[in-house]
Task: structure prediction
Amino acid sequence: MSLATQGILLVALLLVCELVLIGALAYLLSQAEAEAYRQERARLISSKANRLYLIGFDTGDNVTSVTRSIELGTTDSVSAPMDESLEIITWLKEQLKDNQEAQILLERIEANFKICIPVLSAMEAQRASLEDEAEREKWQAKRHSIMPTFDALIKDIPQLLAITRKLESEGPERERLIREQTE
Result:
């Protein structure tokens, strides 16, 4: 073999090694980007689930606040961003469509919010007439009618939060297992 042929083979070998290295780096970059996207998605899902939790508690707190204000002879508002809750639930259903446990919880949560929203709207509309004793009793009856629904929400939403936290922690745990396997 001539010196020129050996030089060309050496350069070709170095070029192939370089291309393999660049390909490996491109693969690792795409894996890192996919993991970053997955973690960002998990954080966003967790954030939305936390917002749903806050809406549920804010609504329950508002109803309790109005009840106390009725007892004190004043009137406060029941309003809370309940419509936002249905938007969040729809978004979470789409994002968690591959998680059957989350879908079941979201269906129950959505059904409970759909029960609460009309009752709370009627309570808000009735707020102005709470000085009349009969109206206050109707309002209290409506409040008592949705308390089991609120209790169900208070039980279901933390379970949803646990699922979202599990999603958030899966990535680092999976990466740790991969590192341990390759060592």
In short: DSSP finds four helices and no strands in the chain. The mean pLDDT is 81.
